[in-house]
Amino acid sequence: MSSGNICRICLGHDSLTSIFHKRGLSMLSTQIMSLARVHITPNDGLPSTICTKCITKLDECIEFIRLCERSDVELRLSLENIVKKRKLKAEELCVDEDGSSPSRTENEKSPVVDENNCEITSDLHKDVYDKNDKKRRKQQCFTCGKVMSSRFRLKTHLITHTGEKPFSCPHCSKCFSLSQNLKVHMRTHTGEKPLQCSVCGESFAQSAGLAAHRRKHTGQMPYSCVLCPRRFRTVGHLQYHATHW
């Protein structure tokens, strides 16, 4: 079949445009390759045009994918809110208005259940579960729901929600909400690189830099482009790729 003026997708002849036409940050060919297992390059001997009908179908496919992603995010957030409301309601039922635990007879006590919603019948297990649950609630952030390993870590974590940044750098104007973040930042002034790669011995100032470096040895490429099959070792490489189509 001739590779002349025909649509590369449906092989039709009507209302053709270049398949390498750029729309936004990517070309039509790139968008097609992100959805279908085909490879399209200039001068590959195959048709280099696409018809209006196929462009419309392409847009519908992209919109369908985005709709799926938006709905998934919305449904998961809704589910998280429902779970949080149930937890808060359960905690309110555990405390009387005067702040003390409600008095119940042994027959009136609600069964204790574990994380899989299975009833815990052993009194010993109930006591352990109650203690762990109380400890977890004391160490849980009620703004984002994150559970910290200690009350101290919870206290420092809460600062991230208030916007307060009490730790300032003596060398520049930057301020930080956590002392650990300031400690890491100070390495940009001192040149200190305490983190070392166990494979080649190269040193780094930040754990993120070390983690990205280790992928050179493992070959891991965790960041993928949504518009083409390429994958990248760091998010910075992915962002550069996305803005230079």
TrEMBL record:
It holds the Pfam family zf-AD. Its main location: nucleus. InterPro entries: Znf_AD, Znf_C2H2_sf, Znf_C2H2_type. Keywords: DNA-binding, Metal-binding, Nucleus, Repeat, Transcription, Transcription regulation, Zinc, Zinc-finger. Zn(2+) binds at C7, C10, C51, C54. SMART domains: zf-AD (SM00868), ZnF_C2H2 (SM00355). It comes from the Eukaryota. GO terms for cellular component: nucleus. GO terms for biological process: negative regulation of transcription by RNA polymerase II. Residues 5-78 form the ZAD domain. The keyword Transcription applies. The keyword DNA-binding applies. Residues 139-166, 167-194, 195-222 form the C2H2-type domain. One of its GO terms (molecular function) is RNA polymerase II cis-regulatory region sequence-specific DNA binding. Belongs to the krueppel C2H2-type zinc-finger protein family. PANTHER family: KRUEPPEL-LIKE TRANSCRIPTION FACTOR, KRUPPEL-LIKE FACTOR 15. This is Uncharacterized protein. It comes from Bombyx mori.
